[in-house]
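Curious: why these numbers?
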Amino acid sequence: MGGMGHPDTVELQIRVRDLERSRAVYRRLGLVELATGRANVGRFRCGDVVLMLTDRGSGGAEAHRGAPAGRGLGGGPLLTVVVRDIDEVLAYWLEEGMLVVSGPHGAAAGRVFHGLDHDGHEIRIEAAPTASA
């Protein structure tokens, strides 16, 4: 048997300026929040992926260099979240004052829009496929 095995979970960590505000956004998108036991970390499970939000002030090279929390469009990871009601999410996105950078429009996978969260992280919001009649 070769290789190092198959990981059970992939964890993506992003730094945020306001942890509580960011946690509220990801809860509203339907990600399941996990207990962390740490005040400066939020963790969310979505399938086999865990999204970890860390307060920018919690350390790390970016915090020490004074880098912004988010790198904005094209400068960091693209997180795709598949939702049941894209119109509800879009309304929430706009109510929160977050930027929509494209869409909503149709795509091969269904309706989709790209937005930037409060920290400039690019999020692709995609409508869940519906059963055809």
Remarks:
- The domain at 10-127 is CATH 3.10.180.10 (2,3-Dihydroxybiphenyl 1,2-Dioxygenase; domain 1).
- The chain has one domain: 10-127.
- The helical segments are 19-28, 61-65, 86-95.
